[in-house]
Amino acid sequence: MMRTLLLLAAALPVCAQDATAVRGEKVFQTTCSVPYCHGSGGTAGRAPKLIGHSFTSAELRNIVFNGIANKAMPAFGAQLPADDISAVVSYVMTLKGSAPATASQAVSVRAAPAESKEGKALFFDAVRMGGCGRCHELEKRGSPVVSNWNVAAGFADLRSINVRDVMTAQPVGESAFPALIAEKSEKRVRVFDLSSPLPVLRTFAPDAVKLTEGSTWKHSDAVRDYTDAELAEIAKYLQWVAK
Amino acid sequence: MSVARVLALVALSKLLLAGDGATHADWPSYGGTFAAWRHSALKQIDTGNVKNLIPAWVFQTGDYENGLQSTPIAVDGILYLSTSNSWAFALDGATGRLLWEYHYKFATDVRMLPYGNQNRGVAVSHGLVFMGTADNHLVALDQKTGQEVWKVNIEDSRQCGCNTTGAPLAIKDIVVAGVTGGDSAHRGYLTAFDAKTGRLRWRFYTIPGPGEPGHDTWRGDTWKFGGGSTWMTGSYDPELDLLYWGVGNASSDLNGSKRKGDNLYTASIVALNPDTGKLKWHFQEVPNDVWDFDAAFEQILVDLPIGGRTRKVMLHPTKGGYIWMLDRATGEFLKAWPFAKNINWVAGITETGKLAGRVEPAVGKSAMICPSVAGAKNWNQGAYSPNTGMLYLPVQELCNDLVARDEEVAEGGAFTGGNWFMKPPPGGKIEGYIAAFDAATGERRWSVPVTTWIMASILSTEGGLVFTGDPEGNFFALDARTGARLWSFQTGGGHRGSSISYAIDGRQYVATPTGWGSLVGAAHQALFPGAPSARPGSALFVFKLPEGAK
Predict the structure, then answer these.
(1) What's the Cα-to-Cα distance from B224 to each of A83, B164, B210, rounded to whole Å?
(2) C-alpha radius of gyration, chain A, whole number
(3) Nearest-CA distance from B508 to chain A in Å?
(4) Which of A221, B139, B172, B521 has the smallest number of Cβ neighbours within 10 A?
(5) Structure confidence by residue, pLDDT tens digits, B356-395
């Protein structure tokens, strides 16, 4: 009997914590996991996923209490009783993981200095349908269509870049197009079709397409939407990335 | 057969097809047909025998995240189904046998996206199955094998804060894909790709750029981040050769002070030339939207007697609780009528289609607005029956306190411009129901309450039936004329998808996706404390009449 009581006593703090977390889950369901905010169980909604987050409990308490300035996360300090805030923090702490999951961590990219900011904006310009980012991935932005480019090359003239990797693909029953090889095996050939402003990764049976060296495609065509001055800004940005 | 006879037959079949938005053996497109009636002409299952319906087979997708919100596509006896994590399946429609499956691999981490990983269906044409992905790619798969044929990145989802969750629309020789992003600092667009090669055909920006008509309805550079997403699927009229798409809310959602002006073409219907992507006409329902009232939902294309003559109209039910009726050839406003009881964001809509008596949220001040940002109806679609002349809608009476807020702009970042706190209607409670309206007059014919709300689409059939499912797992059939409940089956998972009907070898089937989830789905317990839980899952249930039964 004594042994049982001792065991119970030892288990008590854990149980109490669990009970708080259970209550916190209820608070979460009714206050945080509401339409267009966090998803149920801490999955992603319009608000970020909380499963696997890496906040400390003090950080969480501060965010829940004060909100995040200029963001959708409201301040609950005046809305929820202190017990509820403690409970919901306990619950969200049960979702903690080692993998980075917060928005700030997911996009932990060096901030570009003032002199390369304009170049960066031009490089990924949404008004130009993504600009250079349609083919190039840098700093977790853009599409990695071109995998083997060397930013450190310090491109002086972005119009006259040598593009010897671009080949000519001739599919059966279709016009030839400029292509970058993505995969070539016995089973299939995958190439990026560069004739489209948004490159298309196309898959062929090996005997359904013929690839030949060289192409009429020029990098100057890809950057024709930019002025010389804009390209100079982009070059500044690339030089900064290369450092 | 003589040439004259062939021509006569062609003419006859055209005559029969003109104005026929019903599906037959196949369910070829997201809304059933391009007219988006979600009505099947099949009538083997009818009001008399529906009570005998039994499960034919069940398919478990194995993708249990975010529920199953898809619309299966049925072509020549094969069903094509997509799931939340951008997986696609081909299934034998009679037996449920898996013919092929395709698991898309995300190029970027989609978990951080504000719109989540979910998928509402595929499109099928040219021997290909087209699917948008949660990381904003469009893929084309071989219809026979499921092998990838082409793939294109629509825009880097990390940059735009947008992705593809809606079903593409395959018309003519193109496939058209919309994107989310209406609650992000993002400029919306609609993109058309060559069906066979995936090459870009055109992109229509829902917010005009400098020098384009309508650009002056924006202030400063707010046009670059003004929302106007295209997150649901459009309609197409082959005779008029016009592509219709509903454009989402303006962003930031609840704060219009920085973007004073109409903010074209947000919260509008746009009619485009499908070959060029050029605008033919537009009609804006909510100028300077500050309530998150998308015009994104289904556009139902019907020919109705209006003012003594038959007109080609579009019926468009929206979040704000109104059904808008437009002339779909010209975009002329014909009328609008409320389909929900609790509407206070406007006092009404004028005879010329303008909003009267706007009640707007203000910075730092709470305003009680009905309906809520979740809408009097959300994306789950209604149905139109030519048999009864009725429009069937899932309706929810739900309000919210809106508080606007000044918010910094960061490209692709959240840009809601305020907060919402869900509330029951003043002096009432949150309720959901299915309502039937006369499609021409707007007169309410019947309404059937449910325990909580209906977040699944509605299917209408020529057998005089209306099918849908509830969050508690019941999939059920109502009498299309009276709303009387005729049959119900507990599927074990909440209903969040769109049921369809199809036929193989003369036998009619009804298929429904099951499995609760999604942004709004997450709120269920909060909105309905004490209600039976809505179970997650991801399975397709298919029903038929017993062998030998008629």
Answers:
(1) 43, 19, 10
(2) 27
(3) 37
(4) A221
(5) 999 999 998 999 999 999 999 999 999 999 999 999 999 9
